[in-house]
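User: Hi! I'm a student and our assignment asks us to look at how structure tokens line up with a sequence. Could you show me two examples?

Assistant: Happy to help. In each example below, the sequence comes first and the structure tokens follow. Example one:
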Amino acid sequence: MDININTPALLFPAISLIMLAYTNRFLALASVVRNLHDRYHKMDESKKPMIHAQIKNLRSRMRIIRNMQIMGVTSFIISLVCMYAIYNESMEAARYLFAGAIIVFAISLVLSLSELFISTHSIEIELSDLELDND
């Protein structure tokens, strides 16, 4: 496969957009944590076990989002290094770097999918809390 300097550049818009989405997820999660913190200090002791389940879920999501962002930035950097390898006419290295950038980007997307499943579980915890209030 022949690649030119534009080939790794194709990843830049995709990585940039996905990083924006990851940042939005992180900011939304930070807001949830702040709200949960306020709720925790205002609630009675009987409700706190439900909050502990949410805290565990939020910690897991924060770790995953951090790793998603790390993989996205790493993919971006590898793409830049790939462009430099193409510039230096190191085509064999450029091919491996481009493949690496795509693989790391794919890992980032898989992490995003796993975070989506965990966030859905978080909403289920909230819904079960509402159901307990109605009973």
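Example two works the same way, sequence first and then tokens:
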Amino acid sequence: MTRLIGIAGSLRSGSYNAALLRAAASLVPAGTTLEIASIRDIPLYDGDVEAQGIPPAVAQLKDRIAASDGLLLVTPEYNNSIPGVFKNAIDWLSRPPSDVPRVFKDRPVALMGASPGRFGTIQSQRAWLPVLRTLRTRPWFGPPLYVSNADRVFDANGTLVDADVRERLREFLAGFAQFVAAGCP
């Protein structure tokens, strides 16, 4: 069984990215599970707080990622880049630096995202690549998933209603699950 963990990089209750992650959890291929994690309880990074110990929400998420076979980051795009709240969470997850290998090194990672704009989250996904490289992850470079016009792809309840996007998401997840199951090259 391939065990993935997914994180949406938005705190908004009506987040398109959280909706995309929920849809993904229902579309993973047989033999794969996708567990949804939250960054809601992760505080703003502060070295003084870190000096007193890693916050419980951070420690728990680090353990969940370390126990997974792969990590799915579902990223919004703010001002053509990475959302601050999501980057903050990843920064906390990389603390202390000695824990980076346990949490991130050689961990298969995939990026996808949704935006009401015309270009999806292409700039945000590109902006994540240096971060993933620094953390020594193993990014999956299969067919990208940039969901544009998200306000038309999801209904008012956050349900994925676009058949084309649903099929692209299914193919994306199948490719990532296959990449994860294949292990290190």
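Here is something you could point out in your write-up. Strands lie at 2-8, 32-37, 70-74, 108-114, 138-139, 146-147.
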